[in-house]
Amino acid sequence: MREKFGKHKLPLTAIVAAILVAGLGVTAWFLRPQQVMSEVSESLEGTEAITVSEFELDNVEGILLKPVEGAKRVSVIFYPGARVPVKAYAPTALEIAGQGYEVYLVKMPLNLAILGWKKAGKVIDSRNRSRNWVLAGHSMGGAMAARFISKTDYPVSGLVLWAAYPPEGSTFSSSLKVLSITGGKDEILSDEKVERSRGQFPESAEFFEVEGANHSQFGWYGFQTGDGQATISRKEQTKLVSRLTTDFLDQL
Which residues are CB-neighbours of 181 under 8 A, at least 6 positions away? Predict the structure, then answer.
């Protein structure tokens, strides 16, 4: 005797409802921001030499870290990684500002730089175009910083990528200075795409791999799913990344 299947079908409304619930769950997870670590609070207080304040320039909000004295004529606009609140990069930004550079940590809609990649333009327009402007970013933030430079004609002198690579098809001026920093234990970044980016950038582009560093420790937001285990501390990685970045900025 054959068994009959399919006699008790689920109502279409139940199937649709299940799909919607699953979709909402995935969306809620994707939009949930990474948890910022407690060490960030101390950096947001600044130091005697560095002021830290919130800024709003033409509807662009963020955090400005600025030397009290002796600021150099190079300013950095920073885009955060996906789902990472920009304040998670305050400890590294404080190190960079400590070497004389203004750093604008730009807040992104839903913490996704892909939704706000043009924001650097409003910061530049609201300040001083004659300064040397450098765009920087981590992961998706780095990709969107590269996209901004590739797609606009704003006067940007340099690009700094932390565990990031430019979108395919992006082209850059031969005069653009580029620094790419990756981690030897990063299991999220595509090594193949980083290698491909060498052909997109000017020949003068600099590439550094920090031994023992992973993807998550470029910011202060905990461990990111799928990442490799770092063999250096987050504080040490912060020091190394900020030193490589400021050495690059000094050339500008």
Answer: 160, 161, 162, 163, 208, 209, 210, 241, 244, 245
Distance CA 51, CA 68 (A): 6
pLDDT tens-digit map of 137-190: 999 999 999 999 999 999 999 999 999 999 999 999 999 999 999 999 999 999
| Residue 97 contacts residue 68 (beta carbons within 8 Å) | no
Task: Write the pLDDT tens digit of every residue in 11-21.
Answer: 666 555 444 44
Q: How many Cα neighbours within 13 Å face the side chain of 68? A: 6
| Spatial distance between the Cα atoms of 32 and 224, rounded to a whole number of angstroms | 13
Show the domains of the chain with their CATH numbers: 37-250 (3.40.50.1820)
Could you tell me the mean pLDDT of each successive run of 10 residues in the chain, 252 residues long? 49 53 44 90 97 97 97 96 98 98 98 98 87 96 98 96 97 97 98 96 98 98 96 98 98 94
